[in-house]
Amino acid sequence: MSLPAGYYRIDPDIRALVSAMNVHGFRTYASCQGHGFPVTKLPPYIAFSCPVKMAALLEQRLRQDAESAIPRLTWGWSVKGTFNSDFQLCFRLQPESPHHWYHRYCRRSLRADFRTLVRLRIRKSVPVRRH
After folding, report:
1. Residue 44 and residue 33: Cα distance in Å, rounded?
2. Which pTM was predicted?
3. What is the pLDDT of residues 91-124, one digit of tens each?
4. Secondary element (H or E) of residue 67
């Protein structure tokens, strides 16, 4: 069975997060739910493009969570910027390290973070448009 034109296979664990990012104005173009053991062997990521302000707001939300007394995410997440092959600025959402060492060996901690990011972080990162 072949995939329709313009469609690419998205790993099932990260599919809802990729979809939420696209709905809220982030243009995703590559992703991986992560593979291997420990879970840091091939960590998950979502590559995307968006206005710098949106990426900065997402990074701000992620840092606020990581620095809070009781973080909602089990991993510290970050947004990294780089230039693609056409020298356009693009970004990568990825986990940096778990808040507790044992999550390094627990893939469900990342799946829980994918769900938390969908519910709490992505939609709050979209700037409010003033008319």
Report:
1. 4
2. 0.84
3. 999 999 998 888 888 889 999 999 999 987 565 5
4. helix 52-67
Distance between terminal CA atoms of the chain? 47
Instruction: Report long-range pairs for 127-130 (Cβ below 8 Å, ≥24 apart).
Output: 127/53, 127/54, 127/57
Instruction: Report pLDDT digits (tens) over 33-82.
Output: 999 888 888 899 999 999 999 999 999 999 999 999 999 999 999 999 99
Q: Is the pLDDT of residue 131 over 50?
A: no
d(CA 23, CA 125): 12
Distance CA 78, CA 76 (A): 7
**Which residue, 101, 129, 98, is CA-closest to 34?**
98
Q: What does residue 45 show for φ and ψ, rounded to 5 degrees?
A: -160, 160
The residue whose two tokens read 């997402």 is 58
CA distance 60 to 62: 5
